[in-house]
Structure formats: C-alpha cells, structure tokens
Write a structure and sequence with these properties.
The chain is mainly alpha-helical. It contains two helices and four strands; from the N terminus they run ααββββ. The protein is 40% helix and 9% strand. A two-stranded antiparallel ribbon has the order 1-4. It is rod-shaped.
Length: 92
C-alpha cells in the first residue's frame, strides 16, 4: 500500500513540477540571418572550388603535329609565356 501511494505521489510531483531550463537560453537566429550565413558559406565553398580547378591556355599544334594544351599556373601569371614558333601558332 505504501508503495502505491509513493508511486502516485511521485507521478503527481512530476506532472506539477516546472520543467528544468538552462541558465541562459541561446538567442535563436531569425530565418534571414540563417539564410545569409548559409549563402556566405556556400559562396566561400564555391570560391575555393573554382580556385582548385586547373586552368588551361589556348591549344596549339607544335612542330611534331601534337596538340598541346598548356596548363596555366595562377602563381606564374606575372611571368610572360615563352614565344611560340610559327608552326606552334597555328590554331586548331
């Protein structure tokens, strides 16, 4: 009998007791702020992706008849490319 009364009293205490809350609730962000942060993150990811892609120059045919597609290195853009011979200047 004591056990039944104790269980009944404990269940009523759980129903009446106020819920436990954190000391300082985090301020929730507005949907506009969340969208802005998401777009900024997406733009940064796209910039990193674009910089990681290899870049190529104009293709040309060398004296052996091979088609050459030179790779452009962004760090070397300050240097002038080597002169091509007349055969190399033929466009594809």
């Amino acid at each position: 009998m004591f056990r039944t009364v104790a269980i009944f009293a404990f269940s009523i205490f759980l129903l009446v007791a106020p819920p436990v809350q954190a000391d300082e609730p985090k301020p929730e962000k507005t949907p506009e702020e969340l969208v802005t942060e998401g777009m900024n993150t997406l733009m940064q990811a796209m910039k990193l992706f674009m910089h990681s892609l290899p870049q190529f120059g104009e293709p040309y045919i060398n004296e052996n008849g091979d088609i050459v597609i030179p790779r452009i290195h962004p760090k070397d853009q300050g240097e002038k490319p080597a002169k091509k011979s007349d055969d190399e200047k033929r466009r594809i």
